[in-house]
């Protein structure tokens, strides 16, 4: 993809369980305003080999390596849901990193909102699959897998089939287990501003407690909140979907705020 020197550089890290293929529409939309560098974590596409064993530290080290390889003079970095957790634990140079975008951020299991049925099904799958690689592999290639993934995520079956094709089964189950068990508190960076991009009606994470957490933990002059209508697991992954639910006006307000770094944050950007 061609990059313009006039645009801000945006490094983007995907949610769970997605990748640059499933979020192509978002990339196409953001490319109107950014030079987008999308980083797929190990095991989330066939192009990036799965790790021998999942760990948050290995994801963080991989992201740090990729950021270093980009050699960007300045950038904004965005993490979507699970991607925010990885980004926020990454060692970022405040001289180069202008802001962190926390997009529908995953914090820990206390901020999840999966519902009883989904939690029960996911826990049952994990209890079986994580302890037995053979069972995990069989499930990943089972004809009913896309139906189960559609129920858990809300994605359509065709999107779920792409997930099954691209994402390593072991990486899926190990990451899911981590996400529903993780209780570690988030540690915010004091020398880098945050932009919280959130849907108050998010059905996967508890949006209102997350908003309160950011407001209580990040200095007011270092925080901008932008409200959107993006679903945590979008039913559509087209450019038009993201443009409709994350307005160009919101994106412009976000860029202007990052570049101005005013002492008092601007009002929450409208849709």
Oligomer type: single chain
Task: Specify the helix fraction band.
Answer: 40-55%
Q: Tell me the number of helical segments per DSSP (H or I, 4 or more residues long).
A: 11
In CATH, the homologous superfamily of the largest domain goes by the name: Alpha/Beta hydrolase fold, catalytic domain
Overall body shape: globular
Strand and helix layout:
Blueprint lengths: L7 E6 L10 H7 L3 E6 L16 H15 L4 E6 L1 H8 L7 E7 L12 H14 L3 H8 L4 H9 L3 H10 L2 H13 L12 E5 L8 H11 L5 E5 L11 H7 L2 H13 L11
Parallel strand pairs: 1-2, 1-3, 3-4, 4-5, 5-6
Helix pairs in contact: 1-10, 4-8, 6-7
Task: Kindly describe this structure.
By secondary structure, the protein is α/β, with parallel strands linked by helices. It has two domains: 181 residues, Alpha/Beta hydrolase fold, catalytic domain (Rossmann fold, 3-Layer(aba) Sandwich), CATH 3.40.50; 66 residues, no CATH class. It contains eleven helices and six strands. The longest helix is centred in the N-terminal third of the chain and has 15 residues. The C terminus is likely disordered.
